Fold this sequence. Notes:
The protein is an alpha+beta fold. Helix content is 44%, strand content 19%. It has a four-stranded mixed beta sheet. A two-stranded antiparallel sheet has the order 2-3. The longest helix has 21 residues, at 43-63. The protein is elongated, with a radius of gyration of 18 Å.
Amino acid sequence: CDADAARTVFHSQVTKTLIPIDLTSRVMMNFDLLEKLPNEESPRGELLRRILPGAFRAYRQHLGVEGIHLHDSVAVMAALEPDLFTTEAMYGDVETEGVLTYGATVFDRRRNRESRPNMDVAVDMDLDAVTGHILERLTKAA
């Protein structure tokens, strides 16, 4: 939502790993996964079972999708279980002036690029393991 702030982060000297939304979109909780969550007897299980049906409805109504993307959970898994992700060092920047491209993230993937890589970017993940770890942690938290 704030392209200038994102650009500041991209240009900062801090070590960073970007987990792109096209990668996080691969992990989706569907109704079948709901049955594997903790039951209503635990406080966390009760909370999940109260809030998730509304989230499923919202995704279906607004996005036409029968499930919930777990973007933030995938990013947390990248921090907790980095071996489940394949990353590449890249130079990335954020467009802050374009009328049609404002806020777009751009990566220089040319062989002879002019800029040095400023971040690691996740390009793949072990989908089953990431999903399994998320579910395991939700179950253990209950």
